Amino acid sequence: MRRTSRHPVTGANSLWHVYKTVPFWKVVKNFLVIQVSRYIPFLGMKNWLYCTFLRMKIGDKTSFALMVMLDVMFPEKISVGKNTVIGYNTTILAHEYLIKEYRLGEVNIGDEVMIGANTTILPGIKIGDGAIISAGTLVHKDVPAGAFVGGNPMRIIYTKEKLAERWKDDPIYGRQANEQP
C-alpha cells in the first residue's frame, strides 16, 4: 500500500484546483530548475541544484541521468540515498491529481539503488537499499531492500537472497552480494 495523504475536492477535477494546492511561482521556479537540470551533464551541479532550489535530500555520489523528470510541484518530498543511479528519462512523482481528490506522498529511495531507464515511480513509495529496478518499470508499491524488480505491473523477479545466490561467483557482484549490510 502506498503511503499517500488524500485531499478531496469539490466541483471541477483536482487538477483544475492546482494553484489552490501549490503556489504558481513555486511551480514556475521548480519547472525551470528541473528543465535545466535534465540536460546538464555535470552530476555534482545537478545534485546541487536539486538540493539548493528544490529542497530535495540527495546522498553523496548519486547520479541522475539525462532527462530525469522530477515532480514539479512537490520535489521536496523526494529523497535519494548515496551512490544511487537514476536512469535515463525516469519520472519520480510525489503527487497525483485525480477527479475527486489529489494525493501527496513522499518517495524514499535508498542507498546504492539502480533504477533503469524509462521507469515511473509513483507517490508514497519506499525503495530499499541495494534494490535494482528494471528499465520501463512502473513502481506502484514498495520495493524490498536488495530485490530485483521489473515490469508493468511491477513484480519481484529476484529476492535479495536469490540474487545473492545468482551472483555468488561473480568477481564484482558476488563480493558485494555476500557482504553484510
TrEMBL record:
Give the highest taxon in the source lineage: Bacteria
Q: Which PANTHER family match?
A: ACETYLTRANSFERASE, ACETYLTRANSFERASE YVOF-RELATED
Matching entries from Gene3D superfamilies are given as: Hexapeptide repeat proteins
Q: Which InterPro entries match?
A: Hexapep, Trans_hexapeptide_repeat, Trimer_LpxA-like_sf
Q: What is this protein called?
A: Acetyltransferase-like isoleucine patch superfamily enzyme
